[in-house]
Amino acid sequence: MNRHHWWRDAVIYQVYVRSFLDSTGDGIGDLAGVRAGLPYLKKLGVDGIWLSPFYPSPQHDHGYDVADYTGVDPVFGDLAEFDLLVDAARRLGVKVLLDIVPNHCSSEHPWFRAALAAGPGSPERARFHFADGRGPDGTEPPNNWHAMFGGPAWTRVTEPDGRPGQWYLHMFTPEQPDWNWREPEVAAEFDRILRFWLDRGADGFRIDVAAGLYKHPELPDSPDPEADARTRDSVNPLAWNQPEVHEVWRHWRAVCEEYTARDGRERLLVGEVSVPTAREHARYVRPDELHQAFFFDLLGAPWDADAFRKVVSEAMQDIAGTGSTVTWVLNNHDQVRTVTRYGEPAPEGSGLGPARARAAALLMLALPGAAYIYQGEELGLPEVVDLPDDVLTDPIFRRTGSRARVRDGCRVPLPWSGQASPFGFTSGAEGVRPWLPQPEWFAEHATDRALADTRSFWHLYRDGLQLRAALDQLGEGTLRWLDTQPGVLAFTRGDDLVCAVNFGTAPVPAPVAGTPLLASGPCPPGTLPGSTAAWWIDGS
What we know:
By secondary structure, this protein is an alpha/beta fold. The protein has helices spanning about 30-45, 80-90, 110-120, 125, 185-200, 225-230, 245-265, 280, 295-300, 305-320, 340, 355-365, 395-400, 445-450, 455-470; strands at about 10-15, 50, 95-100, 130, 155-160, 165-170, 205, 270, 290-295, 325-330, 370-375, 480, 490-495, 495-500, 520, 535-540. The chain is built from 15 helices and 16 strands.
């Protein structure tokens, strides 16, 4: 592994802070809980952690509505606790990435409050997208865009004199007004924010909605106004992926390089980039822009050998061709967990889901580039699909009334130990429960049980990470596809390591010489042509 460019083949663990571990007994995870869990993550073998937003926030979208970008919400701790976390992580050799949200802020942010008070045409309103309405007396929104989380993308305000006034743009919820990056003050403010956290020891940033920021300067109507809401993805070409956004990432990259030049510690920028093709994705990871951008096509691929091969091939051709490495991901805080997504018929863990999730995990770890793991993925947690309506907190549910694509099911607090909720997540007083209820079957996935069972998901991930770190063939590099029978995907890494994945009901491939390096499913002795070792994964 090239340690100078640690990020190129790093494995980063996503910590959803409020659901990781509660140290204060209030039922909500916090930074001190993350610090307490660092030895567990070090034992798992990850290179770094990415922390979900912990900034002061009204929590309308669980911290992605930021009211103060340079503070810590009291529910998660304070700046002193953040410093302790960074120091503890550094002593363990674990990098710390922060989640930064530059597309929008909270409606409680001081700058947005000032914009409401200042009135039309003011410099304060220029920091956001305020516009006059259409129709008689401006009663219609300025354009026909819809928000990704449902409903119109515009909300009308009451002016300081009490009259109905202008409208402001919010591509997610009314509590998350979009910044206007065409206003220089906004760029300068985020430059200050970056430097604040880099000065406190952050190793880099995960950038929320990295294809956003700039909107079409004329804010025209969209030919498909409901596309974002329908797909819950950033597909409106007038609101996302504007060419000017690349100048922002060039500047942020320069800031990171400035800090690296000071002390030799390479800082990382990884973007949440949702664009239609791998070729467009590649533009974000050119040598002077983001170091990495999540490649979501693997996460979105159906369980099919041909589909996986197509996705991997396009990524290797278009993204790796820029000189960057592909950043693979199968789970995150916005998606149904793989155990459920890959055909799980019941939440308790039966059916095809677990086998396929294990296979997908090892496939991802065998691919060239970097990988991100979402907390609980290493425990084989399924999605919690039967949360009652009255506990759901996702603004998608609040704005649409529909449970479709609601994200609470992958955010239920982790089970650490024991046979009943709260499973060691919180040690609060009687009556204090986790902020989302944990089902009884979480006991089967608790960390203490997983660590004790060498057949568990946890040991599969730990062994995979150990091999990835130990074998020169894995991590950064290339792959070569092998011809196989239908339903099997196979490739070589280097000259003597084969990764073979059974996507269907194919028999075990031509056997493997000697003891397999890692196996999920049967792997008898024998040989695969041209190999001395194999990574055989049975997802059938």
